[in-house]
Amino acid sequence: MEGSKLYVGNLSYSVTGGQLQELFSKYGEVKQVNIIEGRGYGFVEMSSPAEAEKAKEALNGTDFEGRTMKVDEARPLRKREGRDFRRY
Questions:
Q1: Among 24, 33, 39, 71, which is least packed by CB within 10 angstroms?
Q2: Is the predicted pLDDT of residue 5 greater than 70, yes or no?
Q3: Is the pLDDT of residue 80 over 70?
Q4: Percent of the chain with pLDDT over 90
Q5: How far is it, in rounded angstroms, from Cα 75 to Cα 88?
Q6: What is the pLDDT averaged over residues 53-62?
Q7: What local confidence, expressed as pLDDT, does residue 22 receive?
Q8: What number of CA atoms fall less than 13 Å from residue 61's CA on the CB side?
């Protein structure tokens, strides 16, 4: 794994950042947790790619709060060509 940021999907909408922090800290130091409100997914940044890989292998496909989590390496944000999202 190249990066230390993980995508965590198929989360219950009631899951909190604190719950993810506690769960992922079993596999290393958690630097940051960001849950996307109302979307059922978020991101967890570990302190090293090795810790991120360990967490991914241990948690992908496991049950958390009644849902089967999807854990994978986060992909970089893609720039969308030809769109201007500024609002006037």
A1: 39
A2: yes
A3: no
A4: 78
A5: 30
A6: 98
A7: 97
A8: 2
CB 75 within 8 A of CB 3: no
Q: Which domains does the chain have, with CATH numbers?
A: 5-68 (3.30.70.330)
CA angle 14, 24, 34 (to 5 degrees): 55
Distance from C-alpha of 41 to C-alpha of 59, rounded to nearest angstrom: 14
pLDDT, residue 36, reads 94
Tens digit of each residue's pLDDT (9 = 90 or more) over 14-40: 999 999 999 999 999 999 999 998 999
